[in-house]
Amino acid sequence: MSSIISSFGTFDDLYAQLLTLRAPLLPPGKATDPKLTDKISSLYIHPTLEAAFHLLNCDLPSAHFLVRHMQAAPMFEAMYLHGILHRIEGDYDNARAWYGNVADTEVFKKNWSGKEKGLEFIGKVEAFNKKREGDKEALEKESVEEIKTVIDHCVEKFGSGQVQDASVAWVQPEEAHKKMGQEMVSGGKGFRDF
Known about the structure:
Elements: E1 5-6, E2 9-10, H1 11-18, H2 36-41, H3 47-56, H4 60-67, H5 76-89, H6 92-102, H7 106-109, H8 115-131, H9 136-158, H10 175-186
Antiparallel strand pairs: 1-2
Helix pairs in contact: 3-4, 3-5, 3-9, 4-5, 5-6, 5-9, 6-8
């Protein structure tokens, strides 16, 4: 990893700090440590890494802002993080759709031996959230490991250095996907109320 230094410390320091927080498993309501939002953003790291760091802090709005700019090929890492975000927030059907969209990608295969294994994990989290079935500690550990694997992949692919213009990672979704996203945001067809 890198020792890029911002006014808030290094990539490695902040990553280590994020790994001490509660695991991102269930809908958090708010960021675990709101002060970390600025620290994460001030690193100017690749937007997939920034989104993953926000997920470790359970800052779903900040992560969602970033992944929505990268929700099409070739940004499979961000698409996968989008699925993880929806798993954490409790939108399990949306999470399953995103996991399905990236099931054949290198980053997904680093975590799961197949699409079914990833979907099985979503099912276990859903069962715990809705019925308190399963081992919370084991699920939290698996959730953190899933995000760590994506982070490791992104560091390998994009590096952990500063990115001055994050828009280089933005992709334009197809027209049908744009319309669906707009309906979710302003048409009342989404999981959340804005």
